[in-house]
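Internal QA ticket QA-208
Title: Verify multi-chain structure generation after dependency bump
Assignee: T.L.

Test input:
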Amino acid sequence: MKSFFKSINVALKVETIKTIKSKVFLWIILFSLFVSFMLWVLFYMIKNPTIARESIILRAKANILGSTADWKTFHEIMNMLIAIIGFISFGFLTIWIFGREYVEKTYKDLLALPIKREAIIMAKTINSFLFSIVIAFFLYLFSMIAAFLVGLGEFDSKIALFSLKRYLIISLMNIALTTVLSFITSIARSYIMPFGFLVLMILVSNFAINLSENSQYIPWAIPLIYAGMFIKEGLTIDFISYIILAFTCFLGFVSTIIFWVKADQR
Amino acid sequence: MENAIVTENLTKKFGKLTAVDHISLNVKKGEIYGFLGLNGAGKTTTIRMLLGMISPSKGDAYILSKKVKSSANDLWEKVGYLVEIPYSYGELTVYENLEIYRKYHLKNDNQSTLRLLEKFKLKEYKNVKAKNLSSGNNQRLGIAKAMIHDPEILILDEPVNGLDPAGIVEIRQLLLDLSKNQGKTIFISSHILSEISKLADRIGIIHNGKLIKELDEDSLENERKKILKFSTIDNEKAIFLLNERGINAKLDNENICIIEDKNYVDNPEKISLLFCNKNLPLKILISEIEDLEKYFLRIIGFNK
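Actual output:
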């Protein structure tokens, strides 16, 4: 057991170096910055309707968000952002962390090491979780800066804390779902299939929350419902939703390990 | 001598295709074992089974008397490998790539990394990203990665691919030094037959998934065809004279006489004497030993 923890420790250090040294993580952070900038633009338009009227596209987008540029709207948008953008960027990161080994054909070098393959997969998964949290942090930080820059009125720390808690829970829900992507990436040995799955799940969950009365039991719809992105009245997640989410996370993780340990690596 | 690598009826089937068919071989400690075969003969599949990357459909492989399986992690502390083309993390430097494998091999100090940079002439590329390396230097990096933990056994699949002639000689000398002076066991597959013949103590020939021949230096010497090529002022008369004496001789496409009779092949002076006495002075006399390439192609039944 002691050597297993030592293995995880080593694997975690190595995998972290591999992620930090790559440009992918930087691109995702820049994407967060871009999203926050767009948020600033939209709030700016809401606050300055005369400018917005001159730009048809921006006016249309600003209308979607509602008409008030305040902290309540900001927090609502942040929850929606992390539910959709979070799922996409965490998914991209996970697909890259696992897929790069196949695309760059370096997976062969991970198969016959003194470190157990389980430890490497665990380290990759923890790595994907931690860096997803970092992305969520930067998205929130950049968006807060954007919100302060545009000026959204009096800041209520109690509401902000409550909203931040929801933001974190939605982030964790989306992070939990990335284990399925790590499994699909491993069996596909490429980026295309997991990206396809990612897009499919976004579509399915968006349709489900607006069409199905039982969408709270679809794993990928749960973060969206929690973020309040639904039309159907009374739709809410319950205890079983949490169990389904945890089970999906566990299943994805265990399947990835079984695949790496048991399947032929050709 | 103790065995370092043993396979017993090692078999791998992919659906209906039998990629490796009941291969039983043993590699002794400290020797260089050359594994020869055409593309698709089953070399890489055998190597992947030796490394626990794929599981055999039948049979077993043992390294240092331990059964090979993906979970035998302590075994991999003693084995270094290079499977097919070496790939590295392109965005990381040469040094960082080596450091990653040093850490994954649980080695604490970076002296081995620095030593290998020196040994493989990669020091000047230390801070160059792996994606910017030439194929030859990438190959060096691949072999350096395989040796980062100073393993007892090296399993190398086509290790001299992409190297220039000087690089090939360098790697050959390195492998010979590792085997002869440091007692390392080396299992090497290569399609460069001349390279194998300069390196290997023993050779295994695999064809259509089957190990069709295993040879050491002596048996290879005995099994390779030896012929005597000669030319006189009248080759047709020379052939007639030999056939008259019951000696099988023939003319090749270039009108050169060829004789395979062991008595004359081993004693070419007899031919010289015979034709001098018959007033047929020799213009050419060459003793030729079949090279490994020709031997290999003959063994696998490859007809030009």
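Spot checks passed. Chain B is about 35% helix and 30% strand.
Status: verified.
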